[in-house]
Design brief:
Helix 2 packs across helix 3. The chain starts with a strand and ends with a strand. The longest helix is centred in the last third of the chain and has 17 residues. The radius of gyration is 14 Å and the shape is globular. It is built from 3 helices and 5 strands. 43% of the residues lie in helices and 20% in strands. It has 90 residues and is α+β, with helices and mostly antiparallel strands.
């Protein structure tokens, strides 16, 4: 899987966000907010193919957490991106 092209994180009022625009004529604009860990992962994997295992390995390396927790957190992070159509799955 890979992060879709064309989305950029912006810092607004101290928050890291992505604005998701709705379809023309329909006001379905959403804001996805990123904490520091989400921002770190986005920056690492923005232009790379990755798996949940890759994300978990980055979390273990960066924060020294247990692999089981890192895997759960990686899956949760990916799920949020998938729900907001920020990931392409091949």
């Amino acid at each position: 899987m890979r992060i879709r092209k064309g989305f950029k994180i912006q810092s607004v009022g101290g928050e890291n966000i992505i604005l998701l625009q709705g379809t023309y004529g329909v006001d379905t604009t959403k804001i996805v907010s990123f904490n520091d860990t989400s921002l770190l992962l986005w920056n690492i994997y923005e232009d790379k193919e990755f798996t949940a295992e890759d994300i978990a390995a980055s979390l273990v390396e960066e924060f020294g957490i247990e692999r089981e927790l890192a895997t759960k957190d990686a899956i949760d992070w990916i799920d949020v991106l998938v729900q907001n159509r920020l990931i392409e799955q091949q």
